[in-house]
Amino acid sequence: MILQFKHFKVHIWHKTFLAFLLIVMYGCNNSEIKRPWSRRIIPFPQQNLTCNNDPNSALRQIFTWQTDTSVRSFIEYWKTGDKKNIFSSDTSSFCSNHRIILRGLKPECEYTYRIVNSDNKSFSESEAASFKTSFLPVWLDSYYTAAKSGFKINGKLLISNRKDPGMLVLLDSNGTIEWYNAFSKFLKTAWYTQNNTFLFILSDPGYKTTYGNHLLEMNLNGDTLLHFTKDSPGFAKTFHHETLLDKSGNIVVLTAENRKINLTEVGGTKNDSITGDGIQIFSRNGKKLWEWTVFDVENPLKDPDILKNKADWFHANSMCFDNDSNFLISFYNISQVWKINSKSGKLIWKFGEKGDIIPNQTALFSGQHTLHLNNDGSLMMFDNGVKTKRSRALSFIINENQMSAKSIVNAPLPDSLYTEKMGSAFLLDKNTILQCSTNKNYLLATDLQGKILWKVKTGGLTYRAQFIPNQPEK
């Protein structure tokens, strides 16, 4: 839809309110707000306005327009007929070509909006116009159904499906979809970063489970911030299961590689093939900064089960940074967590069954997923419980001096919610845990003993559910 505004409705507001508005819009350090607001009436002509539904989300609307001069602009909008609740968009900084995306909209809803342009001395306001958002895809609208409990979560839940089209979704505690983005490829795994962006792995057809050949970062507006592929210069390995940002904003990703090794001495062939896991770090312009593989620290010939496991030797399924910035990696097939020096690549310790550090028998895990550090510094995981056939949330404090592990959280799910693969556990607060029973299609909030407080039934496989706390108001 193309609209063109020829007339502007100009208001002169009280100086005090205008100064406050400028502080909100531009920040307290802007020297312009120290000058009295000019009472000059200067309309800022604009043209070529486009207002379109985002094809990847019915909850976003994309605006573009031009102004004759370089100005700051933002959009005020409200549900048609409800002008008491007016929202403001992000600000388009001084420029003449403007692009603003409204997000967090409701589906199939009519909104009224106006555009405000300012040069910090004067401002003009366009006449009001309207748009209507699109509808949610039918299969997505009925995909998540919450049980009525009154339980509230102080944050959002990030979930995704691995179908085609891929779908990334943010839910509130009622199971309501607050944000989503559709993809034209298979979405394998996603992570919400410390920079308020999404980092995820996509794949073209032919890649199994969480393996892929596309690595992307996207913001809440749906803008792609970076996109690497397996065929990009410097990239040669398959991405899988996990991708993170380090403190410098570099991309860290689990990789898989296939090596040809002579396994005749253990009953294999001279040119046998072993698939092993690794880590690669790339700068934001795609330069490889660091690399590590399991082959650097382990000899396949010393593994008595190598012929059985050679197609997927250890199966890394998640990683995180320890408090000292070294890597922690979860290996599903051997029920262990390894700590790797992030500079030398040296193996520091193994935690778990047959490891250097072994938890007590009641907290011994088997086939774990979604390894991460809690805010209290404890190491949390979702124990699938492959050997016990009972899944649960676990967390530990590791004492490296004593090479011991203290069990902090041990919250089992009912036997009926056992999930052999995938799944996750995150603290919602100090007394509550978000658990994802993937194979049973449930998201759950439990107490520290595993008592279910709240649950959401999903309409299909959800690899994991990441908890994103609400950010405190500034």
From the structure above, extract its key features:
474 residues; mainly beta; Immunoglobulin-like; Neuraminidase; 2 domains; nine-stranded antiparallel sheet; five-stranded antiparallel sheet; 3 helices; 4% helix; disordered N terminus
Which class of the largest domain in CATH terms? Mainly Beta
CATH architecture of the largest domain: 6 Propeller
Task: Give the overall average pLDDT.
Answer: 88
Fraction in helix? under 10%
| First and last CA, distance | 37 Å
Number of strands: 35
- The total number of structural domains is 2
Number of helices: 3
- Round the Cα radius of gyration to an integer and report it: 26 Å
Poorly predicted spans: 1-41
The CATH superfamily of the largest domain appears as TolB, C-terminal domain
Measured by DSSP, the beta-strand proportion falls in over 45%
CATH topology of the largest domain: Neuraminidase
- Net shape: globular
Sheet/helix structural class:
mainly beta
